[in-house]
């Protein structure tokens, strides 16, 4: 009965009882004493003890709506109630007495507070668990089925009548009825106690499920992270494995030796540790349930049973929803097991890859050691093999002898049989014995020879080891003597300048300076180490350290000093500056000591000079009958040591804002030439070659031999290079006296007198006469200037001194002019990748506002000084002709000639907004690089051209030259249609006559090949880009000239 009663109260509460009694007052009283929330919020503790716990995923969003709904399955009002077999029916009018009612009401109020409290706690627990996924509870279906049958057949008319409250309260309850009621209450209390215990257990299981879910989610996150790490490691390991496969061919012979050295990996993760963690967390998260006392009064029982009824029905609806989550839990477990197995597999692979990587690194080190050992052993084996071969041959001979001895023994045995019967046989036996003795002696000798060979082999091994040790010692000594390559040229140049500064400041002697310079020439490791050790010390300590290194050393190369008016990039007007820098750098790379002396212009590019500083010394030089002081500055340009002379002259010779073009240029540069030689004299320099350039420093040659050689500056040979014979610097003979030269002695036809005027002197002629070596900038130009037309009045002088005159083609600085590394370009490119050239062409078109509608339209470029020598009338014609033929034209340059500049300014205005022509009448370094890279063709229609660098730079950037056959152009550009020239040298288009017809012919042939044969044009571009126009070949020719001249001078000095 108690089981049925508790089930009835738990499932349906007291609502059906109130309906059956039809007592409105009872309903009102019930509403007053029962918390409405209890009817709609099912308690998680109210679960039957027979419930089974399983892992499920259920979000709080699915739980809350079910908990807030009232039970949907109510007992119908018309349900027929059957009495229990162990209870008797009660009268309809039976009610408790007034004292009992009062007691019931009091306990009902107390119980209402308790119920409210418990419901609030449950509500709070729901909020705390709202965001956590919980495992559902699957109820035993057999228990549910049994409870349903009991509920359908359960009737309590006696209880209903006994609990009905009489509004008048006038009747008494009999003793029998009270005893039945008390029994019912006790049974209900036991059922409630069991239900509360079930609720406590269910809540504990619920918390365990929550904690288990959280731990599982954490493990899944960790597995995902480790899976990502394993993927990354697998990628690294795969790369290492590829590298191992490449090394397998080299390590086949060593693999058997190295197998036992491999290590075994360890797994990083054990799945059982995760399961232990989960079980521990489940044990820690169990909590104690709460047990509430129940009131003995009937009123309290009614309220509690009503709440239990709604809770049970809500839980049933919840359980029906939880049943479907078994499959999701099984899927999750399967996924987890799959991830764990995958992780184990990845960890095993990773351990194998790590082991392979460690083996690889070990193999690399051992392979290097083994190769070194193999090389040493190979030498030893080669020598030992020869000796072993000899020993083997001797052993073979011994083996043959033994065979013969065996045969002889057999013959002796046969002879013994006939010994008694024949004297001849006896004699034969004696002979055989003698032979055996001889054989034994030979065997002994062969054994001795073998022993000697073995001893010789051992001695050779010992000798080899001694030789190896000596070679090691020699290599160590050689390492000390070899040049240091880990320091830039700026470092050695700064050292040279520092040493020269000490000499000028009288801090060291000239002899010590010479020895220290020899260390620098050889880039000796000792002077480098001494400098680095004294880097933070004062100058006195540095000098002391350097002087400790002085010893007699042989100079590794020549000592060359260039005296010039230009040097790129600090002071550049034309090609002279490029030649001075390019030639000096090439000679420096060949191991020669190279220095440069320049005027200190106020308009130089000072940002291109590194470590510029003034020496604490002044050089006095003679000029116009007085001594003038000169301040000396030193610095490095492109890694070269440079001296800058700043004259303290009232006329401020080099503070004019420009390099050339002054009315007193003759005085300016004659002053500089003497001051430069005075610097060399006072610094105690002993150069092998003094190389002067063009008329501005041509004064050096006569000054050297007439004034400074007698003073002790007599070690050098003079080399003079004229870059353009059109500029000779002739002036009145009287002006020559300003620098201290004897006008009467030099103004003679065989010396400096100008060939066209007796009262004028010609510096270029003086340099030709007084120099030991005279050069110009291309072989063809050297031939042209020896004619009356090309020599500009000096052809007779050049022919007279033809033995010391030759032409050497200039080179270009391939580091500065390199499309693969040029930072001025939008896109770098090379001969193997011409896409960058097309992109630069498009970018320059946009930059200059040219039309880009036709990408295939050829672009002709020209970068030049607009002077008559460059064929300005032919450039003007080429602009219009290129436009007529469907091309574009870009000109960059300016003219010092006023009417030419004005003419081209008018053309620039005419084509200012033209789609295909653009004239930029100035020099722009950035734009020049862009034009070389963007142009398809490059025109150089010079009337005469000593060398020309633009055609070389153009070809370096893949721009095909169109040039007139003259001077250096004839030595560097060879026509693609000239069958007399080998195909590998054909690189451009040329014309002979300096007229419009010649330009037209060359342009038309170039346009025709560009438009009609793209493949041939591309091959031509690639061929041009691969031509070597570096200074290396030219510098070698200068090096040979220098060496021959110095050798002749030393031979002459030895004869005297």
UniProtKB/TrEMBL annotation:
Keywords: Coiled coil, Glycosyltransferase, Starch biosynthesis, Transferase, Transit peptide. Residues 58-71 have a biased composition (Polar residues). It catalyses: [(1->4)-alpha-D-glucosyl](n) + ADP-alpha-D-glucose = [(1->4)-alpha-D-glucosyl](n+1) + ADP + H(+). Residues 560-799 form the Starch synthase catalytic domain. GO terms for biological process: starch biosynthetic process. It holds the Pfam family Glycos_transf_1. Residues 854-1010 form the Glycosyl transferase family domain. Its EC number is 2.4.1.21. Residues 178-257, 329-474 form a coiled coil. Residues 56-100 are annotated as: Disordered. Transmembrane segments: none annotated. GO terms for molecular function: alpha-1,4-glucan glucosyltransferase (ADP-glucose donor) activity; alpha-1,4-glucan glucosyltransferase (UDP-glucose donor) activity. Pathway: Glycan biosynthesis; starch biosynthesis. PANTHER family: PTHR46083, STARCH SYNTHASE 4, CHLOROPLASTIC_AMYLOPLASTIC-RELATED. Belongs to the glycosyltransferase 1 family. Bacterial/plant glycogen synthase subfamily. This is starch synthase.
């Amino acid at each position: 009965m108690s089981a049925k009663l508790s089930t009835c109260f738990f499932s349906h509460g007291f609502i059906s009882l109130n309906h059956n009694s039809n007592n409105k007052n009872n309903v009102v009283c019930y509403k007053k004493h029962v918390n409405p929330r209890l009817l709609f919020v099912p308690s998680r503790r109210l679960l039957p003890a027979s419930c089974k716990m399983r892992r499920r995923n259920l979000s709080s969003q699915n739980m809350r709506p079910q908990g807030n709904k009232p039970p949907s399955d109510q007992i119908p009002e018309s349900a027929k109630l059957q009495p229990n077999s162990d209870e008797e029916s009660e009268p309809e009018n039976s009610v408790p007495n007034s004292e009992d009612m009062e007691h019931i009401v009091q306990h009902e109020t107390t119980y209402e507070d308790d119920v409210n409290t418990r419901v609030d706690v449950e509500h709070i627990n729901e909020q705390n668990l709202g965001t956590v996924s919980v495992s559902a509870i699957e109820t035993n279906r057999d228990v549910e089925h049994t409870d349903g049958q009991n509920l359908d057949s359960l009737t309590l008319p006696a209880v209903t009548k006994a609990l009905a409250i009489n509004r008048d309260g006038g009747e008494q309850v009999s003793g029998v009825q009270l005893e039945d009621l008390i029994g019912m209450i006790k049974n209900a209390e036991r059922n409630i106690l069991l239900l509360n215990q079930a609720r406590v257990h269910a809540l504990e299981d619920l918390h365990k499920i929550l904690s288990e879910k959280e731990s599982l989610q954490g493990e899944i996150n960790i597995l995902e992270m480790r899976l990502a790490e394993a993927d990354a490691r697998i990628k690294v390991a795969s790369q290492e494995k590829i590298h191992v496969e490449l090394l397998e061919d080299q390590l086949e012979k060593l693999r058997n030796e190295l197998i036992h050295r491999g290590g075994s990996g360890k797994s990083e993760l054990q799945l059982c540790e995760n399961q232990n963690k989960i079980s521990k967390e489940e044990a820690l998260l169990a909590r104690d349930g709460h047990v509430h006392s129940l009131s003995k009064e009937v009123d309290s029982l009614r309220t509690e049973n009503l709440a239990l009824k709604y809770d049970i029905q809500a839980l049933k609806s919840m359980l029906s929803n939880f049943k479907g989550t078994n499959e999701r839990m099984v899927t999750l477990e399967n996924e987890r097991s799959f991830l764990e197995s995958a992780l184990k597999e990845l960890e095993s692979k990773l351990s194998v890859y790590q082991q392979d990587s460690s083996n690889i690194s070990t193999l690399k080190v051992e392979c290097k050691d083994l190769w070194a050992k193999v090389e040493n052993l190979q030498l030893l084996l080669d020598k030992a093999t020869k000796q072993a071969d000899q020993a083997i041959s001797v052993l073979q001979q011994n083996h043959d002898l033994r065979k013969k001895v065996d045969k002889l023994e057999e013959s002796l045995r046969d002879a013994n049989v006939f010994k008694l019967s024949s004297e001849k046989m006896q004699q034969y036996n004696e002979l055989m014995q003698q032979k055996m003795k001889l054989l034994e002696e030979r065997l002994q000798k062969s054994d001795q020879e073998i022993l000697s060979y073995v001893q010789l082999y051992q001695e050779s091994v010992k000798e080899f080891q001694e030789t190896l040790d000596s070679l090691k010692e020699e290599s160590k000594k050689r390492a000390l003597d070899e040049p240091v390559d880990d320091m830039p040229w700026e470092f050695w140049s700064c050292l040279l300048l520092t040493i020269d500064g000490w000499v000028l400041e009288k801090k060291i002697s000239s002899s010590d300076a010479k020895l220290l310079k020899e260390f620098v020439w050889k880039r000796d490791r000792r002077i480098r180490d001494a400098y680095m050790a004294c880097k933070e010390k004062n100058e006195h300590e540095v000098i002391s350290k350097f002087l400790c290194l002085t010893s007699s050393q042989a100079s590794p190369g020549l000592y060359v000093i260039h005296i010039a008016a230009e040097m790129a990039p600090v002071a550049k007007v034309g090609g002279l500056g490029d030649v001075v820098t390019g030639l000096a750098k090439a000679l420096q790379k060949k191991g020669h000591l190279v220095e440069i002396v320049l005027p200190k212009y106020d308009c130089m590019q000072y940002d291109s000079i590194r470590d510029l500083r003034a020496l604490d010394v002044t050089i006095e030089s003679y000029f116009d009958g007085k001594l003038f002081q000169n301040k000396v500055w030193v610095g490095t340009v492109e890694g070269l040591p440079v001296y800058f002379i700043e004259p303290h002259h009232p006329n401020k010779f080099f503070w004019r804002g420009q390099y050339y073009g002054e009315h007193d240029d003759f005085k300016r540069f004659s002053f500089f030439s003497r001051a430069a030689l005075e610097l060399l004299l006072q610094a105690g320099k002993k150069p092998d070659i003094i190389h002067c350039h063009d008329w501005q420093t041509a004064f050096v040659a006569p000054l050297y031999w007439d004034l400074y050689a007698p003073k002790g500056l007599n070690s050098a040979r003079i080399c003079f290079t004229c870059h353009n014979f059109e500029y000779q610097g002739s002036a009145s003979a009287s002006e020559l006296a300003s620098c201290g030269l004897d006008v009467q002695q030099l103004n003679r036809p065989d010396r400096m007198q100008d060939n066209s005027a007796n009262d004028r002197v010609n510096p270029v002629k003086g340099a030709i006469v007084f120099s030991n070596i005279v050069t110009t900038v291309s072989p063809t130009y050297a031939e042209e200037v020896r004619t009356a037309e090309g020599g500009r009045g000096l052809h007779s002088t050049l022919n007279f001194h033809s033995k010391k005159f030759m032409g050497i083609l200039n080179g270009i600085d391939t580091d500065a002019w390199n499309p693969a590394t040029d930072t001025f370009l939008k896109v770098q490119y090379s001969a193997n990748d011409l896409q960058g050239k097309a992109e630069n062409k498009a970018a320059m078109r946009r930059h200059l506002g040219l039309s880009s509608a036709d990408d295939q339209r050829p672009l002709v470029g020209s970068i030049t000084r607009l002077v008559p020598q460059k064929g300005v009338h032919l450039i003007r014609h080429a602009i219009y002709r290129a436009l007529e033929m469907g091309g574009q034209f870009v000109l960059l340059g300016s003219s010092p000639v006023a009417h030419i500049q004005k003419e081209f300014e008018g053309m620039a205005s005419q084509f200012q907004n033209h789609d295909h022509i653009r004239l930029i009448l100035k020099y722009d370094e950035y734009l020049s690089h862009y034009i070389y890279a963007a142009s398809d063709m490059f025109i150089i229609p010079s009337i005469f051209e000593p060398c020309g660098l633009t055609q070389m730079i153009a070809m370096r950037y893949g721009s095909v030259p169109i040039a007139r056959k003259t001077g250096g152009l004839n030595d560097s550009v060879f026509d693609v249609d000239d069958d007399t020239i080998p195909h590998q040298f054909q690189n451009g288009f040329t014309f002979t006559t300096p007229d419009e017809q010649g330009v037209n012919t060359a342009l038309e042939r170039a346009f025709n090949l560009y438009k009609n044969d793209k493949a041939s044009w591309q091959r031509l571009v690639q061929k041009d880009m691969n031509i070597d126009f570096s200074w290396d070949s030219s510098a070698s020719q200068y090096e040979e000239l220098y060496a021959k001249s110095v050798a002749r001078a030393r031979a002459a000095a030895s004869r005297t």
